[in-house]
Amino acid sequence: MVVRQEPAERTDRLFHALADATRREIVALTLRGDHSVSELAQRFPMSFAAVQKHVAVLEAAGLVVKQRQGRERRVRGNPEALQEVHRLLDGLAQTWVGRMDRIDALLTGATGTGPQTGSVAPQEQETSQ
Fold first, then answer.
1. What is the pLDDT of residue 127?
2. Which of 24, 23, 71 is nearest to 51 (CA)?
3. CA dist list (Å): 52 to 2, 21, 66, 80
4. I want to staple 39 with a disulfide (CB 3.0 to 4.6 A). Which of 35, 87, 106, 119 is the partner?
């Protein structure tokens, strides 16, 4: 089932799903190979229903895909969704690097010498003695 989501809603779902350590581990396991929900449940110290809920959150975020195979529901990781997370994080990092560069440029322009490191200028040292 494919549900069209607004970009902000999609981003929120991805990061909410990845905010939990159990769900991150499920994603890692399912990227290495598909597993039934029962197989996944055996790996965690929680109930089958709890693991099933974690898988549902991951599926809603698009991080895993469930497929019926006989009587089982197999879960596999979706690498494209993780690539999307990477692009989102890279975009945020670029935004902050750009902001820090602009702050650095403003500080350099205001003092003419670059950002101050908290050291005392040599002439101030002489007068303070």
1. 47
2. 23
3. 19, 15, 11, 22
4. 35
Spatial distance between the Cα atoms of 36 and 24, rounded to a whole number of angstroms: 17
Domain boundaries, the chain: 7-78
List Cα–Cα distances, 69 to 73, 74, 111, 112, in angstroms.
6, 7, 68, 68
Pair of tokens at residue 61: 């975020």
- Return the axis-axis angle of helices 48-61 and 21-32, rounded to nearest 10°: 80
- Can you list the positions of beta strands (E) in the chain? 35-36, 64-69, 72-77
In terms of phi and psi (left: phi > 0; alpha: psi -120 to 50; beta: otherwise), the region of 24 is alpha
CB of 46 within 8 A of CB of 9?
no
Pairing state between β 35-36 and 72-77 = antiparallel
Q: What is the DSSP letter of 128?
A: T
Q: Pick out the chain residues at pLDDT < 70.
A: 1-5, 111-129
7-78: which CATH architecture?
A: Orthogonal Bundle (1.10)
Instruction: Please report the pLDDT score of residue 10 as a whole number.
Output: 87
